[in-house]
Amino acid sequence: MAEGSVSTAEVKSAFQKFAVHGDTKATGKEMNGKNFAKLCKDCHITDGKNVTTTDVDIVFSKVKANSARVITFEQFSQALTELASKRFKGKSKEEALQQIYGLIVGKEPANAGVTKVAKAAAVDRLTDTTKYTGSHKERFDDSGKGKGKSGREDVPDTSGYVSAYKGSGTYEDKVKNP
Fold it and tell me: Same domain for 135 and 91?
């Protein structure tokens, strides 16, 4: 190996990280086209000039088996060799491949642009339970925690014959003490 060269084990670990990204059933031994494109994008192999996303897709299709939808690490290495000569024009195959490996090593799938929770003043105002009025005020306790079903419904009192009778529980007293 040349000086400053990268070991295949390091490249393989990056390959595995990208191979399992976004796929709960992935083993890390094979990579699909979407994750290959993501690896090329996140590791800056695609630069928009020499290597475009189209080039990445074409190389992926070329190295995979005809009926397969995934590539193995060996096919992945083959694909990188093809992309290396495009990305680093004028360099020897070995030099270009080492530079591509250098871009990949230690990289993990970036979750850039993952949706963040909106924090706006309007949302804060709408969800501040201390400012609720009327029947909505009854749905939360003093700490702002919801009361659940008891805060949403008028639970009927089914204890007596006549609902809402003020003198409930006094019948026995009236009958015994006339």
Answer: no
d(CA 151, CA 155): 10
Read off the pTM.
0.57
H helices present in 127-170, as ranges: 134-137, 149-152
Number of separate domains in the chain: 2
Angle, in degrees to the nearest 10, between helices 93-104 and 73-87: 110
Question: Which own/partner pairs from 62-65 qualify as long-range (CB within 8 Å, at least 24 positions apart)?
Answer: 64/33
pLDDT of residue 62: 92
H or E stretch at 14 = helix 8-20
- Find the domain containing 139 and state its range: 115-152
pLDDT score, position 70: 92
Same domain membership, residue 120 and residue 35: no
Q: Please give the C-alpha separations between residue 147 and each of 124, 129, 142, in angstroms, as whole numbers.
A: 20, 12, 10
Q: Which residues contact 56 (CB under 8 A, 6 or more apart)?
A: 36, 37, 40, 45, 46, 83
